[in-house]
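Pasting two entries for a bug report.
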Amino acid sequence: MKIMLVRDRNVLNTNWLAYFANLLHQRGHEVVIACDTYGKLGVSAPGYELQKGIRIANVNGKTSSPLLNLWHKIRCKTLPSWGLFNRLIKKEQPDVIICYFPVDLYNVTRFQHHNIPIVQMIHGYPPLILDKVLKKNPLMRAWCRKNFAQVSAYQVLMNSYKNDIDPFFAPRKIVRIANPVRQYVENEIVDLQNEKKRIIYVARVEKLIKRPHLLVEAFAQIAPEFPDWKVEIWGLRKYPAYEKEITTFIARHKLENQVALMGYNKDVEALYRSADIHAFPSACEGFSLAIADAMAMGLPHIGFKDAHSVNEIIVDGHNGFLAEDVSDFAAKLKILMQDKALRIKFGKNAREDMKAYAPEILMQQWDDLFKELTSPQK
């Protein structure tokens, strides 16, 4: 089949999209990534480069003509792209269109009348992704509703999310297909026998959802007992005021030698191998690849009981711990830090649990969905 993946901007900065496109290509599908961006498409992380044969169709990309480039640059920043995507769809004639975000759905449905099945991905907790539409004015809501009415199927990442899509979005079909998780051989996984005394958190430094300050606050409660342990927070840094809150807290508690904001690192696998524990204080996730990949490499985890998705992937007392609050987070972190055997046990269980998300299993679910959406209606 020909599959069109639609992602408006930052195409290659999204490692998962490249990984997914490669997996579709490996299954024999023709893959076209449709986007609307002037300038750089982004940079793939090592191991996430697009495979030969996958095409990128950029409706506002650079050309060899300076005048045309000027027009594309203006058009990309000021005008909607619905007509351009309509033209691209007519040219490519895909069997299925997969939209990464709602904005991508608008690009392939507004003022368009094709009958190509559309899958709307929900990369997160559905209300966080979709319910922004419900806050729009009545005219905009009505317009958006027409777009969502053209969705053939919504893909959610957790079974529990099937009931979290508001009826406004006209969900004719909701299917749970989790993110495919890379599987690692023995010499690629974390060596927990070799104690590094390092706790990491891999996520962007952001206050409302990712909440790294909660990890810092929890560690501060037990840090005096573990002077040789360190906490490293690895992820994109773009909120200076929030970072200042964290660094001020670190300084006030004299943790400068134990806690640090490390910034972004493309070699995430190396980060996991450098750690003993992956602490994950996020408020909610869709299906966190940071957790899943770290589990597939054998790292034990700790998160919060009320964090959507986190509280389903982390099974309390099996592959990690789930905490009630910051004090409980600190207490359970302490247990893991003190008990290497428990960390090894949780890590083995985590790695075993991730086998259910092996790419061949998840991509078969996608193939089944494609066949269902493209089969003649009885």
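Entry 2 (this is the one that rendered wrong in the viewer):
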Amino acid sequence: MPSLKQIKRRITSIKSTQQITRAMKMVAAAKLRRAQDNIIKARPYSHKLREVIRELSGRCDRSMHPLLALREPEKIGIVVVSADRGFCGSFNTNIIKAAVKEVKSLQDIDPTIQLVTIGRKASDFFRKRDYLVLQAHNNLFQDLHFGVAASLGEQIIDFYTSDKLDRIYVVYNEFKSAIQQNIIVEQLLPIIPEDADVDAGASIENLYEPDALTVLSGVLPLYINNQMWRIFLESNAAEHGARMTAMENATKNAGELIDSLTLQYNKARQAAITKELLDIVSGAEGMK
């Protein structure tokens, strides 16, 4: 049985850890509020771009634009978006598991699937194992702005248009709430326009100048860049939500452990006092 001094030292240590986890929770909560505001602002623009592409692609032959044209997927790439840091529960583990599962499911088509990793956790995991990492991007979330996403979007477009990759998927965490993040696996290139809604806007005829294909050629790269920006914002908000929840649980667990150790300390102290009293009484009886 541990001594009173050892129990007291452990209680002090856990209290220090609890202060750290509580502070980390407060920091994550503050960052989450800003990240949540950013993703809420970005979603409507992204959805509107999808509507425009759906409308324009219905007026053109898909094979006329390289970002819409379908070809046999002989070379497949997967963009994996993780975090740079830990202490966020199963956030990174779930992303990596989903990416590994996707790689295995597509290896019948392309045994040498190439990965573009975003975030140190995914980069470290796949580089240490037998995976082909085409590019690794770390610390992008430290100074996150649209230019970072646009630069990466342009590189991904270049991989596709230069025939380095025939199909590109992306795996990321979609933000739902502080306690819920959804793993999303979706095709990034070639772009698949959403199915048109027959009822919505059936009486509206849009005019495009100089023509639909020219407008589409300008919108599609913008769409990919905006998609990467939205994915970055989704993942960033999901990471802060996961970290806030993880630190809240850690703080709660530390409190429960402190209560348990305090009870153990009091019992041990009471037993020590009782033993001393018995020794005193025994000594007094022996002197009679």
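Dev reply: Rendering is fixed now. As a check, the viewer should reflect this: The helical segments are 4-57, 91-106, 120-127, 146-161, 212-286.
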